[in-house]
């Protein structure tokens, strides 16, 4: 272990291109192309930033910003970049399975694809997208100026991004793990997989997991301590409730994962025997620890999505959310129950039927609050006035498709049935069925919903709807056939199969994957078209959807201090009440100086040095690991000496901003909802009832 | 109304109906296309499902199939209202042309709450009782009572093939599991490499196999015939080839087969086992070990040491470390023993 040189295990053969030269094949061409894309994209982005001379702005407005809104946006940009990679990997895998038995990929290459696809989609798409949306919207909804710990927020983003970049690096240097996103030992142990692949996985998970734990602490404290005056718990918007539950899950669910990954790291690096075959190692402990995290993780992701849907259903039905207290209670029950079901991921490990029964029933119990939520959303639309905007299309698609996922979930909760369909494509279909319509649709709905608040202009609704439809169609074509193939017994993670019964399913799934690709392209196109037409779609007044909660009561884009005067809350749908009672768009009684957190380079520095630290650890470059670990510690200590961490925005500037905004309000025309997606909508909603 | 003035030129307006039509159609198409494709694919292909629990060859898989359909049907009680009511609500309460009343402050109604919590709860209650009964009656560890004593089979998961040891008959096979019909089969399983999952879908559910540990699986076949078993847990590049044929034979045929194995099998001594335990697929192992009398996919052994299974399991409990060279399933396994030239 010590007998490596200055560059550790690193040499020319570690580069992905050297394998193409020594062994030209389609599989290696695909791998090298992926590597090239990473390198070229990096060069192009750096080049463009230099060309447009935006390094200064980037540094002062974004990279060092402690503003929760900007950090949220950076999280989402990162998630979208990673989603593109994860999605393309999905395409390649679907192509391989559609082409089987004569596929074009090596088994190991295919295994790396499903391992990175899973790791990326969970840890570097779903989590950062959720965290990004929460970061952006939650403080606005509770009437706060920022999250409780703005610099900590930066640090969470930093380690998440550096872990994600590490995964990108693995495309170019070395290879990734072949052990799936769950990385079960002993397969991922040093004996069976001596390469760097599992090490990439271990460090990416340990660091990003730490980031998510810190985020959980940050959000929980923010909700508990930073709510505006009068915002009692039962006056919080539904989204904030789901965020609270999800943050608590982050605090308690992420540590078991970090511990499991670290223990695997100890096994691999220091010859420990936690999960090895010999000397009393026990791989079952890993499965327990991993899923002790893994199951709450699912709810950690889906609860905020439920929150977005609650906002969307209520706003676009122009109606109060039905069964608020029921929904709160259901959310809380789901959060608690999520810790009592982890064993259903391995009913087949040989424990007694009594244990399986307990966990099976606990699993099915979660269906009760989830069902209640679905009915509550239906009742929210009932007696409403439903508008079919992009977020609403996603929400409706979710409602229909998610219950299919719920159905297969209840089926899987039966150990008897799980014994048959565990580890088959039925399971793959199930979790994509809950994660795509459940989580991703929610996030995309939230993206379309809050975009005007973030950037001051609306996204193109027509293209938005198209992308929502394509997502739904693509999802169904891709994943519903997998239920069939799974019932027929096709194991997951099969890079090939001899039984041609599966072929038609795989071909349909491949077509579906192409439709999903079109959906992604439509999202990019939507962004492009909306940017081009931004002047026609500006909503400076700030309320494009006749919103109901506090974030719509301020201009769009939101000012860095959020609220000129911290609001006083009297109702659950505070802004709707304010509009109806004529309290909206009033200047504050007195203008005060506002303190906001200063910019801080710590996040960016940590992003760099933790990235180097992880890379050094993966490649056994010990001196570099030591230096970068010291740099991490020193930069954190040094930054604690920054006493002067607040910046003051003078009252005069706030007054100027507000007066300008109110003038804008005065000269704008309030529009009804029929004109919502026309240039007439400048964010000033007409009262319609 | 004035927004139409801002809209692009007249040509675009004339084509508006096309857009309108396209936009309304996706809602319907999106749900009907996949449904019909799926229906066609599924219905034409279910007939081939010979390796699935949907075409069971024994009572265990049959019960699992029945349970699957019951669970699906019962859950439908909670699911169907969503499928039916969502479109109804969308049509009735849509903003344009909707006919329903508008009650923007309506947010709670006691009886409805009771139904919302009550219906799923009752469904889950019924399902839980079913789950409880089925899970305890189909416990894979429970021996099946038959008119004849069970045939014991010891299963060892290797990279990338399964070794079946019949300790009482003093034979062993790779790549082919033969069981007599109407006779309970009692399996004890372990792994001599990484964790794997053993599944014969048409007969019983799967169970994990792990090194140094044993799990159990019991089933009985009620029809003669042929099916396939496999490993469902990814274990590397030979994973998809880790399948085996399962032949269910009548008693007489089974005895004849046992005699054939005894006559043609090679001795499964330590040396042979170590060659077998290398990272090879069933095919590669076959070409390395099998003789001309054996079938194309199977290797037959006689068993000089009936305690072989025990020694495989107990090797991990010696209290001594097992080096990479001694650990089957690693790339380095057995390298020092054989000539380097034997490696590809």
TrEMBL record, chain A:
Alphabetically sorted, this entry's keywords are: Cell membrane, Copper, Electron transport, Heme, Iron, Membrane, Metal-binding, Respiratory chain, Transmembrane, Transmembrane helix, Transport
CDD domains linked to this entry: Ubiquinol_Oxidase_I (cd01662)
Q: Which PANTHER family match?
A: CYTOCHROME BO(3) UBIQUINOL OXIDASE SUBUNIT 1, CYTOCHROME C OXIDASE SUBUNIT 1
Lipid bilayer topology: Multi-pass membrane protein
Q: Which Gene3D superfamilies match?
A: Cytochrome c oxidase-like, subunit I domain
Q: Does the record carry Ribonucleoprotein as a key word?
A: no
- Of which family is this protein a member? Belongs to the heme-copper respiratory oxidase family.
List membrane-spanning regions. 29-52, 73-93, 113-136, 157-181, 201-226, 238-266, 286-309, 321-343, 355-372, 393-413, 425-451, 463-485, 505-529, 602-620
Q: Where's it found, cell-wise? A: Cell membrane
Please report the name of this protein according to its UniProt entry.
Cbb3-type cytochrome c oxidase subunit I
Where does the signal sequence lie? none
Please tell me where this protein is predominantly located: membrane
Return the InterPro entries for the record. Cyt_c_oxase-like_su1_dom (IPR023616), Cyt_c_oxase-like_su1_sf (IPR036927), Cyt_C_Oxase_1 (IPR000883), Cyt_c_Oxase_su1_BS (IPR023615)
Q: Where is the Cytochrome oxidase subunit I profile domain?
A: 53-570
UniProtKB/TrEMBL annotation, chain B:
Which regions are flagged for Basic and acidic residues bias? 332-344
Q: Where is the Cytochrome oxidase subunit II transmembrane region profile domain?
A: 45-142
Q: Where are the transmembrane segments?
A: 21-48, 68-91, 112-132
Where, subcellularly, is it found? Cell membrane
Q: How does it sit in the membrane?
A: Multi-pass membrane protein
Q: Where is this region: Disordered?
A: 323-344
Per the database record, which ranges form the Cytochrome oxidase subunit II copper A binding domain?
Answer: 148-260
Keyword tRNA-binding assigned: no
Chief localisation class:
membrane
By sequence similarity, the record places it as follows:
Belongs to the cytochrome c oxidase subunit 2 family.
Q: What is this protein called?
A: Ubiquinol oxidase subunit II
Q: Which organism is it from?
A: Microbulbifer epialgicus
